[in-house]
Fold this sequence. Notes:
The chain has 71 residues and is α+β, with helices and mostly antiparallel strands. The chain contains two helices and four strands, in the order E-E-H-E-E-H. A four-stranded antiparallel sheet has the order 1-2-4-3, with helices on one face. The longest helix is centred in the last third of the chain and has 17 residues, at 53-69.
Amino acid sequence: PSGSRNFPALKPATAARTSAIMSHCLREGRLITMTAGAAGTTLRFMPPLTVSAEEIDLALTALEKALVDAS
């Protein structure tokens, strides 16, 4: 993991995998992320200022599924 305290980030191995994870999160989990870094290999999370525990669980489930499916 990388990123700042306010914007957590994950760094998959390649830009293609990062893009696949980002697309899957948006399409399947309605989780909005963005790529960052010069090579586009960092996946940044932009959570809202207020978020419930249930919403965090949904986001983590969507991310976990995207990481498995994009492997």
